[in-house]
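User:
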Amino acid sequence: MKKPIALITALILLAALRLVADQSIESLKLGTGDLPQGYAFGAELMAVSVQPVTFYKMPDASGLMPGPVKKDFQTFLYEGKPRGSLLLFQYASAKEADGVKSFLTGLLWGEDSGPTEKHPDEMYVHENVVMIFCFGYRSRESLLVKSFLREKRKIDLFTPEDRFMAVIARAQKFYNVRDVQKGIDHLKKNYDDIRAHSFGHFFLAEFYYMAHEWDNAKTHYRSALDLHEKTNRLPDEGSLWAAHHGLGISCAMTGRVQESVGPFRKSLEMARALKRPAMVSGSAYDLSCSLAVLGEYDEAYELLAESIRLEKKYRDMARKDECFRDALVQKRFRDLLK
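Assistant: Predicted structure:
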């Protein structure tokens, strides 16, 4: 007995859709050639949290959701050490994938409704595929996978935070090789992605500092510190110290010596609190310079003496520094620099 033509057509279409589903999950996987130097693939599933591992092993255990047509994972190793896994689940339709997404939101994050340091897993849906990123919180592996998907598959999963991190990661490469102009051009080109971030302004200021573009450096150090106080804090005490110190240098180098005193004082205060001798000596010396120019010789002398006690190089620097030209009229300064 012949099958009705409509039924045969439906079966052919179903088989075609099944084939497409199989192909699409494979197209989302990275190849060896897509890995940066130092990376390789591992054989065992790795995750910070237990929830995504449990779901991978039993994706339909609840009985409330459809099972995936296909599932797979890729584990990433860096220099032989596991960095986490990318989990892929293929469903029969985009509707099914969206339904699974709703369930996974509660399973992965609970009340947080999004990645946290404790539960850093990320979850995305593309058409009929659910992807779970089982990497560290705001990790470079997450950016690695997202960059592959955006560049090779035209799938953009980047959040504003991701875009910022990607811009900074590229800027860091320019910074490491001291390619100052490329760093400035890159950050200016992607300014919309860094404008709301204190560290974005700080990094741009650092490039301008290296280029001796003092007015621009001053502008972005101030923006970094303003954002730090209001909405977006700098990542650590070291960068906060450098922002205050850099602002002081930028003010001094543009002839605003009086304006430099406040940032230098703040950087010195921070350096002493952090008990970082190199920071203390640098801040003490630069504050001493500004105070000497302003004629506040008593404090300038004490700070210069402190910087020299901590690092002898400041004695030679002070001998040649125009900041102390007038101060050297006084015997105590001359004796200090002998």
